[in-house]
């Protein structure tokens, strides 16, 4: 082990046992905050623990960890046994080394830096803090996508297109209604994520090893939680059932499921867009962001849509994995929490990238409303829409007329329909208005 590294023998053993890695930055920050709150509360509860200058050095060491000054000294991945104990000892060893180098005071990573604490309450608290921050950032991205879709709904509220069911033309549909229907899904994601934050903000700090608060004085517990709220700026609350909070992680499985549902909605939107941008339909044109082929020069690949789909599928897969880790609780502890946290952090990263990519697509896509009108004019969907006005038998001549030679646009459809049915074109104009065809009169 190099003299330049801050971690010591227990971290070295973990690296040997599980292989080298790197803890996620968000977890290092969160654990640094937990340690600063817990150690500060311990010192205030029992001032004789350390000299005042050492207490200040401990706080400064925690601040440096929170700030990211020593990220290279956390050489473990979350794929590990021991329920996070290796990570707890790693951060204790780093803090003790920083203090020793700064003022020469030797701190025992266990006797001193785990005072009134267990891995099982501190690591779980750090995980929840990191996840709550990630959830808040994802909420912002979901809100941004929803707002973008609502703006598009308003912008295209009078544009007609072909509504389709079971991959077949069905009835006229509003382009604004399409955007609005997508916005409805994303609005539910927004609501779900905001509700999930209520679960994740509850932490088991003070429950120590199995939720019985063993060796954690009440005054220390209250002080530590209050300090942690101030440090993080998050509305953290102590769980009202600490044995449950330490042993069971179904709340994290619920979060993973919420992320998977959001990913599923992105899959639905991108699946629709892949159809709308395909060659026969071509109502949306994917931006030409890079060469589409090494052998076909005239080809645009839907790279953003495929990127979103690939990420969304992975989010869904990690959600299933997280659910399995969550239910692998045994007795008073879920030892799979590091693996569970890893799946959730991966979900966050992929879902964030997918949301950003889809927003970029909507910023750069070319929407061909002329092509939409032409597709609708040539579609049985427009004839179906006239059924209440004309009845089946009067529509039959139009079906025969237009199947052989489809109209190029709505004006040609109106003129030819008026001629075949001996109707006033102005009457057909009213029947073919967006208010009549897509229900905007309601």
Protein topology:
Layout: H1 9-18, H2 25-45, H3 52-67, H4 85-103, H5 119-155, E1 160-165, E2 168-174, H6 175-200, E3 202-203, H7 218-232, E4 237-238, H8 242-247, H9 250-276, E5 284-285, H10 303-327, H11 337-364, E6 366-367, H12 369-377, H13 380-385, H14 387-404, H15 410-421, H16 425-431, H17 434-437
Parallel strand pairs: 3-4
Antiparallel strand pairs: 1-2, 5-6
Helix pairs in contact: 2-3, 2-5, 2-7, 3-4, 5-6, 5-11, 6-9, 9-10, 9-11, 10-11
Strand order in space, largest sheet: 1-2
Let me know the average pLDDT: 93
Structural class: mainly alpha
Which percent bin holds the helix content?
Answer: 55-70%
Tell me the radius of gyration. 30 Å
What string, H for helix and E for strand, traces the elements in order? HHHHHEEHEHEHHEHHEHHHHHH
Q: Report, as a whole number of angstroms, the end-to-end distance.
A: 74 Å
Q: Count every helix, treating DSSP H or I runs of 4 or more residues as helices.
A: 17
**Total count of strands:** 6
Describe this structure in words.
About 65% of the residues lie in helices and about 5% in strands. The protein is built from 17 helices and 6 strands. A two-stranded antiparallel sheet has the order 1-2. Strands 3-4 form a two-stranded parallel ribbon. Strand 3, helix 7 and strand 4 (about 235-240) form a beta-alpha-beta unit. The N and C termini lie far apart (about 75 Å).
Short synopsis of the structure:
With 442 residues, this protein is mainly α. The chain has 17 helices and six strands.
Key attributes of the depicted protein:
442 residues; mainly alpha; two-stranded parallel ribbon; two-stranded antiparallel ribbon
